[in-house]
Structure formats: structure tokens, C-alpha cells
């Protein structure tokens, strides 16, 4: 019998330790954590976010991305929200430069502080706001586990290393999610968040004009879709934005998977979902059944993501203002 590669064995043990550690910390989370200490916390968040999204629905995608990007760097500890006087915090990383809505998080947190001073963490505020933003665009509603505490460290380098780029291939995507204790199903389900929002042309223009450095097109793209994108995005366009889910980018729906199945994913990371048997099967199932399980799956995967590397108990702190440690 062939022996296991020692490096593969070490890597497997490392991943298992990460999963065990996250699971242990996540035991401090529960639905209704603030039931006695701040019983109106969720209602406060929901009321504000419904009003915000009714005025500007384009903010929803960014509010959801904030929760994603926070959880993938140091865990779901609100470290994305911290400011740095030297511009060396997570929010200063390139991948976070397009995020909008930090003032919305501050608005929700201020309302929570007014109702229940020093009780609800910024990390939990992010989780609640993400759920409420999805629901405000006709998406699913799920029960959010709360009880996270806030971290005190925010590092730009860690953001650069941990946030999954839109040019990632399926191997890189699977590894990134595995390292966070998430499954391949979580990967393909959470990718469905791209059903809302927009992207600047420079985020994918290389797929249209210079995919391998030879002035060529990404062969995984539908050619008709390439023509449509080229009409909107000229070479070196740094200003124009394009809908990620054309026709319904302001509604949280199931059309994303139909687009992916037709090779119309905007990013390489979207197209990559067709390069793995498990992710491809999920894409094709949702496309064929009008997203029969997507809403339920999305809520479950958001809960799974919300457990990554959380601080509970006496760890961390409850920030008074999300941009600064106490």
C-alpha cells in the first residue's frame, strides 16, 4: 500500500485543526443571543436596512460583501470595519476599495448603542445587516446566530492574502474555502451572491481583450456575451460598471445559475464553477429547476460562513464605535 505524501498529511491535519478550532469557537453562538440583553436588536437592524435599500438598492451587494470579506480575514470579528491612521487596515486593501456602506453599518451600530449600550458587537451587526440586505431584495430570510465579539487587529496584508480574487480558478477557490472550514457546496452556493451588484470593467476586461497576454478572449466565455460586454467596456475603461446578473441585478433571485450554465459568468471565479463535477452539478441543478433549493441553501451557507474564526465569551471586545477599538 502506498504511503501518504507527508506534506499532504500535514496539510490535512492543518485543515482539520482549523475546522475544530472554528467549531469550538462557534459553540458560543446561538440564535437569539441578545433576547434578554437587547431584545429589539434584530428589529432595529431590519428597520434601518429596509429603509436604506428602498432608497438605494445598489448598496445591498456591498453590505453583503462586507460580511464575506470580514469573515475570510481573521474570522467574523468586525476587523474589516477598523480604521488605520496609516492606511494599513483591511479596508485599505485593493479588494475592499470598492466597498460602500460603512456609514450604514455605523448608523445601525449607533442605533443599537442607543438602545443597548455596549451589548451588540460590530461583528454581529455585519451579520444581521447582510441578512437584512438580502431579504430587502426579495431574497431568503434565515435565522442569524449571534454572540460574536469584536477583534482588535486589522491588517492590510492579511486581507490581500485571504480575500478570494475574481480571477481565482476552481482549485484556488476550493482551497480557500477548505481553509476556512467551508465545503464545496458552500463555495458554489455563496457564489450565488453574485446575483446582485455590479462590477467595474477593469475587474474582468482581461477576459475580453487580453486573456493570456496575446490579445485573446477567454475561451470559457459565451461569444455573444463577449460582444455585449465589449459594447459596454472598451479597453482601459476604469469608470463603467456592468451588471453582474443582467436584467435582475437589483433582485436577489436564482438567475445567476442559469447564466453560469450558459457560460455567461462575469468573473473567472464564476466560470470556474463549471470546472468541478460537484460545483457544476449544483449549477446545472439550480438552472434546471429554477433554483429549487438555492434560497434554503444560501441561508445555511451564510450561517456556516458566519461561524468562521469567531471570538466569543471573554475574547475580544464589544466596540462602542466600529471603526475604532475601545
Number of strands: 4
Derived from helix and strand composition plus strand pairing, the structural class reads mainly alpha
Instruction: Please state the oligomeric state of the protein chains shown.
Output: single chain
Series of secondary-structure elements, N-terminal to C-terminal: HEHHHHEHHHEHHEHHHH
The largest pleated sheet is described as: 2 strands, antiparallel
- The percent range for strand residues is under 5%
Distance between the termini: 57 Å
Low-pLDDT residue spans: 6-22
Biggest β-sheet: strands ordered side by side in the sheet: 1-2
Radius of gyration: 20 Å
Provide a count of the helices: 14
What level of helicity do the residues show? 40-55%
Assign an overall shape: globular
Q: Average pLDDT, to the nearest integer?
A: 93
Characterization of this structure:
This protein has 326 residues and is mainly alpha-helical. The chain has 14 helices and 4 strands. The protein has helices at residues 6-26, 41-55, 59-71, 102-115, 122-136, 156-162, 170-179, 184-190, 206-209, 223-232, 255-261, 268-271, 277-288, 294-305, and strands at residues 30-31, 145-146, 198-200, 241-243. A two-stranded antiparallel sheet has the order 1-2. A two-stranded antiparallel sheet has the order 3-4. The protein is globular and about 55 Å long.
Helix and strand arrangement:
Blueprint lengths: L5 H21 L3 E2 L9 H15 L3 H13 L30 H14 L6 H15 L8 E2 L9 H7 L7 H10 L4 H7 L7 E3 L5 H4 L13 H10 L8 E3 L11 H7 L6 H4 L5 H12 L5 H12 L21
Antiparallel strand pairs: 1-2, 3-4
